[in-house]
Amino acid sequence: MHPQGTARLRTSDTEREEVAEILRAAMAEGRLDLTEGEERLATAYAAKFRDELAPLTADLPFGGRQALARTPAARAATRRSVSRHASLVLIIAGVLTGVWMLSNATFFWPAIPLTFLVIGLFKHARYGRWRPEYSFGHHHRH
After folding, report:
1. At what angle do helices 13-29 and 50-57 cross, to 10 degrees?
2. Is 2 part of a structural domain of the chain?
3. Measured distance CA(35)–CA(114) in Å, rounded
4. N or C: where does the chain have the smaller number of CB atoms within 10 Å of the terminal CB?
5. Are residues 63 and 91 in the same domain?
């Protein structure tokens, strides 16, 4: 039992690895020197409970999420996601243009929804996420 009387939650390999990735990214940015980074990594891999992991990234910007978002793996995942989003916009553009051509309308009405779709794509490319409610690393936690 935890001193406050609440049960401590055990951590998982995935959570330990996530914290280790944040720590490695912070070391690469120069926020942690080699010695302190290695100490924190050792602590992260030895952690048995979630509350042991939190202090390891608490003094890093956004709990280390900012550094993690700039790792090569995160950037590659964002590129793949933006590429899928762009493909979807192109497919929708093709379908809407086809419907417009069949409708014999003189005004190119697909420009209106396509404008919003393209703005969403640019926001996705700029900010690395598509849905505003999505926040990196917090989609499975409560």
Report:
1. 10
2. no
3. 52
4. C
5. no
Helix, coil or strand: residue 49: strand
Start-to-end CA span in the chain (Å): 21
Rg of the chain on CA atoms, in Å: 22
Last residue of a domain, one of 69, 84, 115: 69
Q: Which amino acid is at 142?
A: H
- CB-based contact 69:136 (threshold 8 Å): yes
**Consecutive 10-residue averages of pLDDT for the chain (142 residues):** 65 85 84 90 91 84 60 71 88 92 90 90 73 44 42
Question: Domain count of the chain?
Answer: 2
CA distance 33 to 27: 6
**Which of 83, 114, 84 has the alpha carbon at shortest distance from 98?**
114
Q: Go through the chain and tell me how many residues it has.
A: 142
Q: How many CA atoms lie within 13 A of 138 on its CB side?
A: 10
Tell me the CA distances in angstroms from 81 to 22, 37, 78, one per residue in order. 21, 31, 5
> 6: part of which helix (H) or strand (E)?
none
